Amino acid sequence: MADEYYFEKSVLGSILQGADIPDELTDEMFLQPRNKIIFQALKQIKKQCAPDIVILHEHFMKDGKKDNETGGPSYYGDLTSGVIIENIEYYAHSLIEKYRSNKIESAIKQAAENIGNKDIDEVVQQLKTTLSSQEKARQKNVIHSATEILGMVFPAIQWIIYNFLAPGLTILSGAEKLGKSWLAMGLGISLALGTYVLGKIKVDKTAVLYLCLEDNSRRLQRRLNQLQAGNIPNLYFADKWIGGVPALETYLKDNPSIRLVIIDTFIKFFPTIDLKDYTEISNKLTQLKNIADSLDIGIIIIHHTRKGSNNKESGGDWMDNTLGSKAINGTADATITLKRGRGNRQGELNLTGRDIEEQELILTFDPDCNWTIAGDKNEIQESDTRQLIFDWLRENGGNGPSAIHKGLKKEGYAGSLSTIQNILIKMVNSGILQNLAGTYLVSSTPSMASMASTSSIPSIGIEKRDHDNHLKKPIEVVETVEEFDIW
Question: Are residue 267 and residue 364 in the same domain, yes or no?
Fold first, then answer.
């Protein structure tokens, strides 16, 4: 069961670690007596210095009885455990909401007791007055100047998957039966083991909760065996979920080791939702986003794309392909869309979000249903075009950009002349080609490094960063298969 005084303790723990005391908090909002005493003491200490556990203990040492009443240093230490001071506004807001709810409940009970000897209109008015006063007390606009904002110091993003998945709410969408759930399960397994996500990105080991609401335990066992997952004690599954968002919030608070929740699928978790109702969708997703924000975890919701959007010729903004209202992507912190042709082992992954860089990645889908990053889409396409140019010039001799472009078009190349011109310049700069008065020739002795840059698939942008010494893992080449199990 979640701690009844969780928000009281979180507020106190944040203040003990240096957070400012929100102006709207009052003594009466702390229902546990010792928490109220500690809050009163912290307000006094704050007037003179920044409080901490030692200072608070010394403050109460002047009155040994009070120190005993509040639990002493042991309890003060517990208050700071697991508390994120940047969430002080959330803790305070939740505490105020709880206090407000208790006041309303008390007013209703009082009204019920008095209804026998009071006019019904008087009882209704009493309730309206209580609700109105509580609403006014709750509302407060917080305004900062640009100077204040620029002077703020924020902690680094605690990435779940570096430059791929940040804390918050993420939508993972794609057409049916193209491997979205295999992709999500692969992410969960890699995080639970602390290995490489998509064969490329090193991650820290963490607990994962997967709500596989379209499956059963038998099918899960088969798929875990197919992915050769092995024994993973901190990867948890549920094929049914009772209690919706409140039950999920309670479970996550009781299990703070979990940093990623995967909900498969959106419509199974919210079975009665109207996908065209902007307001309803926004309200439902905001509930999940608030949990992710307050606990500093990631929540991935698997969803579908519109019919026909998987067609590579469909064009348009890929963000518009998500099935349903624009509130889905608008509310989420990030959107990831998977696209793959039927029977094709290569797919595309588009990512964008508030904290992640916009990316287009090429993935491969192996016979065991593992997704692996092949590289950045634009870099791979450029690498392929470099190879086409190199082979064509070696076969046909030196030529200008227009002749090269026409020659490649006859062989099926669909790119523009300007793309060819830009790549020719890069190939000259890297020593692969020579430019003799507008005629491009293969260099007589191109270096091994420049040749490699022409023929090899490049690494993705994520890998180029030196982030916490995350190691690179080479991609294993797999044979093409005609058929494989799709999830």
Answer: yes
